Amino acid sequence: MRYLILSLWLTLIPSLSQAYEVDVELVLAVDVSRSMSPAELELQRRGYAEALGSAEVIKAIESGLLGRIAITYVEWAGAGRQRVIVPWTEISTAAQAQAVADLISAYFDESLRRTSISGALRYAADSIETNGFEGLRRVIDISGDGANNSGIPVQAARDEVTARGITINGSPLMTTDAMSEMWGIPDLDVYYTRCVIGGPGAFVVPVLSWDDFPAAVKRKMVLEIASDMPPVRARVIRAQANAPYDCMVGEKLWERNRHIWALP
Q: Exposed e or buried b for every residue in 106-127, given b needs 16+ CB within 10 A?
């Protein structure tokens, strides 16, 4: 009997060391840089919470091959400035999705300085590879209202992350206010398409108004979770072939404004 128990234990060891399989490993990487007002930060969190608790997203999760996903919600700003609001969590039921949504909507903290899309992408990729899950697909969903102006160039980070087998989708926040007039770029959707997103099936869903934000997040999450969903044409820009574009526009804008405002 002792040898039988030992034999059974030895057969279990490999499975205990294996990552837990899910349909998708999804990082929700959310911009909280200082260009975002407190009201916008609140709208953003509530938009993600509403999307997660929606019937459409629950249906997408349940219709997957395994019927479960792993998700984390991370807020980011400058290089090295990321904070985890929801650690990696399995979602396979509506109750689990609502619990994650409640965590997101209950949290509130101040904005952080600078905008490092590159830092957020690298952080998210490292998190995916050390989370204990094994997704059939691995996706970073990144939203932001400005171009990269901190850390390594965004193209270098994108290429590094996609080489690791991770898809990057984007939600450029193209709302207008005094901060966007100073720090924003008018073609942020093109910037995201040319410089940020990448990997199989990568796409961009621009947000032109905060009223559109919850619906845009829901649409994007359904596309990311349900691999058999047809493309949603409204405001979805598929990654295009390379074309001339200055992906250092954010860094140049920062240098211009920092001298005007005597920023360090």
A: eeeeebbebbbbbbbbbbbbeb
- Does the residue 185 lie in any domain? yes
Percent of the chain with pLDDT over 90: 52
Average pLDDT value for residue range 222-226? 92
145: how many CB neighbours lie within 10 A of its CB?
24
Provide DSSP, 75-110. Answer: EE-STT-EEEEEEEEEE-SHHHHHHHHHHHHH----
Poorest-pLDDT segment among 94-98, 123-127, 175-179, 204-208: 175-179
| pLDDT at position 215 | 92
Give the span between the Cα atoms of 83 and 87, in whole angstroms.
10
Predicted model pTM: 0.83
CATH number of 125's domain: 3.40.50.410
Could you tell me if residue 180 is inside a domain? yes
Q: Is 26 among the domain residues?
A: no
Q: What is the pLDDT of residue 41?
A: 82
Percentages (nearest 5) of helix, strand, coil residues in the chain: 45, 20, 35
Rounded Cα distance between 201 and 224, Å, is 9
Number of structural domains in the chain:
1
Answer whether 146's CB lies under 8 Å from 257's CB: no
**Cα(38)–Cα(128) distance, integer angstroms:** 29
- Say whether pLDDT at 75 is over 70: yes
Q: What backbone phi and psi angles, to 5 degrees, belong to 166?
A: -115, 135
**Domain boundaries, position 81:** 36-260
1 within a domain of the structure (yes/no)? no
Contact 82, 75 (CB under 8 A): yes
